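Hi again,

Forgot to attach this to my earlier email, sorry! This is the prediction with adenosine-5'-diphosphate bound. I've pasted everything inline since the attachment limit keeps bouncing my files.
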Amino acid sequence: MQKVVLFGECMLELRQAQNNTMLRSFAGDVFNTAVYQKRAFAQQSVSFMSALGNDVISQELMQNCQQEGLETGLIRHSALHNPGIYLVQTDAQGERSFLYWRENSAARQMMKLLDEDLRSQVCKADLFFFSGISLAILAPEDRVLFWQFLSEVQKAGVSIAFDPNYRARLWASPEDARQQFALAFAASSIVLPGIEDFATLYGLHKLEDVVAFCAPFNIKELVVKNGSNSVFCLSEQGEVTQAIKPVTKVVDTTSAGDSFNGVYLGARLADYAVAQAIELAASAAGLVIQHPGAIVPNENFQAVITKQKLAFEQQAK
Ligand code: ADP
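Structure tokens for the complex follow:
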């Protein structure tokens, strides 16, 4: 069985609802990726690596992971910290804004909670995935520990995958992010940026400039997501550019890139060709943005994935 470890933070999401109430759910970029990978490829072992607290919300979050079929053996617990929280507000024009309480979250303690069992488990995985947000939330001294840990994992033969997912407000400065991302690009064999990450952080707006920027690194598979336009991949299978069928009614783009990543990585582990992996991932992301929130109802998701997988089987006949 193929084994994937995804390292990041999951938070309690609160969303305004009618009658002054709030809807609660759980989300976070890497967590979303893990959920969608497992949903699309149930046969893979998908493990969420993070730190939670010993509180009621942490217990519910663990149950949520289990309901989604995620392995929870790499989740550690901090005695002094709780999960982060964020509130999604929507104004009269439908514009969303986010308020966070995550500066002191349990996930930020992860590197202090690493133990031998966790290290040896991760070293047995086929793939390890993390994002720029996983890095941003770590204290500078803990990032040093993270890079040592990642180097061990890499030496054990685990493939490393990274999505920069640049969020300016989580970093002390753009330079800080650029320094950390340089280490991440150097360590990763699969990199899945959104083109916006490069525009904001490096002033690179064109695909060819992004590709040239990444060329000095030893990236085996570079997958550049360009929103509703296209996805480009440069890999040992050559260059693939796939146009995206734009969705006419976009409800909420939260988790578009995360769902794409989860399904793409699952598909590649399941030996799909790059073009098919992109097609499956894009169909998942196209569905996700037609629903509010990061995690869409599983029935709707399964319907899209099953239809697309069947279409591939028909094409193969
Ligand atoms: P990120 O969330 O990383 O910024 P993008 O905005 O590039 O990611 O979107 C990720 C994926 O979501 C795209 O590669 C595409 O498959 C899908 N997607 C995004 N916007 C649209 C849209 N308007 N219509 C259809 N698919 C979309």
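The pocket of adenosine-5'-diphosphate is lined by residues 194, 196, 225-228, 231, 244, 246-247, 250, 256-257, 260, 282, 285-286, 289 (CB under 6 Å). The mean pLDDT is 96.

That should be everything now.

G.
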